Amino acid sequence: LEPLVQHIYLSDSLTANEEYKLLELDEDSLDYLLEGNSLIIRGCENDNAICCTKNSTFSFKVAEISNPLLITSNLSHSGKTSEEEVYNYLNFIQAFQIDGYWRLLDFKYSNQIMDNIVKMIEEKCWMFDKIPVKDIYQELDSIYDISILNQFVMYFFSRNEDDSNYFSIRKEKIVHFYADSILRATIKVRFF
Fold this sequence. Notes:
Blueprint: E1 5-6, H1 12-15, H2 27-34, E2 40-42, E3 50-52, E4 57-59, E5 70-71, H3 83-92, E6 95-98, E7 101-104, H4 107-123, H5 133-140, H6 146-156, E8 157-159, E9 167-169, H7 171-187
GO cellular component, one term: chromatin
InterPro entries: Dcc1 (IPR019128)
Protein name: Sister chromatid cohesion protein DCC1
């Protein structure tokens, strides 16, 4: 594999449309196209299509892929994979920095942490916009690593604007987390 990997995201109108296909070419055919030449696709409705250049003919083979990544080299980019963009993406996928490495927590483990935090909030009758996070750390630091707890809180809670000693839940993140949990449990689908 090349060291450069690029996610390709298509709009909903393209991904729902069966008319678009990904075509993998060998290096000679790609060079042929890059020189300004064109490929012609021919075939009848009931026959396999063929691809023609000026002096060669190729047949098509359909392949099913399970990998949603397109791996390619020679991408045109600005040369700036910015640090802020990397950290924003790591935050988006809820990656945790553990011992200097970025990792994704097992969903069951994340669910245990969330359940313990929510249980504590309910038992102590804390308001959702006035949660003393230091109390959560004190009670749960014997069960979970404090750096994981801290990062977990930063994903799902925000510092209270009126009093910095308290945090508020991020409703949309909590709702998304529990929706994901319910879907995983009921239909056995893993979402990324």
